[in-house]
Design a protein that fits this description.
The protein is an alpha/beta fold. Helix content is 28%, strand content 23%. The chain has helices at residues 2-5, 34-43, 50-58, 86-96, 115-124, 137-150, 153-156, 191-195, 243-246; strands at 75-78, 81-83, 105-109, 129-134, 160-164, 177-182, 197-207, 214-221, 227-235. The strands form two sheets. Strands 5-4-3-6-7-8-9 form a seven-stranded mixed sheet.
């Protein structure tokens, strides 16, 4: 069973969905507000899902990214981490949307700025749970501060929490999870994350080695526990690694 779940670049089918023709995002266009960013992504065919649109309008990137928050490209947030470009967040949320229903349990591995975790929390609602996990305490604190500034009601309802830990091991005390998002590239995908995925459940994870081809990949676990993969988009992510490696200590 272990060998069949060991997902690497060799067994991920590279077949980007045709509707994602605008994979380069918005290019050099720099929206001046969250509303303008979302409107532009709709106009260019990037943003297709009404539920995801509603949530992204509720979670203003201006509270989560200090510099150029509405520019459609990755932005550094310190400690060797980045927050993804808006169009990549759209792809992840739209892929996970069928599993981010009210009352669902969601996990965001490498929560970074807290932006995507906040979006997931809005989608699962007050009866659901969204956990953001970071192995660098300063980034977990950054996530908390950003949500307190932009969407504090998520803490009031106990929907959202940020924890410090090794995201490669998941967070079993709040699992199993209907939806898991991994915000760094893995090759192979950690087995513990697959084990903590519900049946049925869905994970979105960039698969590939650092500084090489990576594919934003959808991993589905069916009701009978079988695992299937589907490629979504060519991406470039920082690696899913240890705290020490990320900080350059080993």
């Amino acid at each position: 069973m272990r060998s069949t779940c060991m997902l690497t670049m060799r067994n991920v089918v590279i077949a980007v969905t045709a509707q994602r023709a605008f994979s380069s995002g918005l290019g050099y266009y720099s929206p001046r507000s969250n509303a303008e960013l979302i409107d532009k992504m709709k106009q260019t065919g990037i943003l297709l899902n009404a539920h995801v649109e509603q949530v992204m309008r509720m979670v203003d990137r201006g509270f989560y990214v200090e510099d150029n928050p509405y520019q459609d490209r990755p932005q550094p947030i310190g400690f060797g981490a980045t927050t993804s470009a808006p169009h990549v967040h759209v792809y992840a949320l739209e892929a996970l949307e069928p599993f981010l229903r009210p009352g669902a349990h969601a996990l965001d591995v490498g929560s970074g700025s807290g932006y995507l975790t906040a979006c997931m929390a809005q989608m699962v609602g007050p009866n659901g749970t969204a956990v953001g996990i970071e192995h660098i305490p300063d980034l977990a604190e950054l996530s908390y501060k950003n949500v307190m500034a932009g969407n504090p009601s998520l803490f009031h309802s106990s929907t959202l929490k940020f924890v410090v830990g090794d995201g490669r091991k998941g967070y079993p005390s709040s699992g199993p999870f209907d939806a898991i998002h991994v915000g760094a590239a893995a090759d192979p995908v950690p087995q513990e994350l697959i084990r903590q995925l519900k049946s049925p459940g869905r994970m979105i994870v960039p698969v590939g080695k650092p500084h090489s081809a990576q594919i934003l990949t959808q991993i589905d676990k069916t009701a009978d526990g079988k695992v299937h993969t589907k490629a979504i988009e060519n991406v470039i992510y920082v690696p899913l690694t240890s705290k020490e490696q990320q900080l350059g200590l080993e």
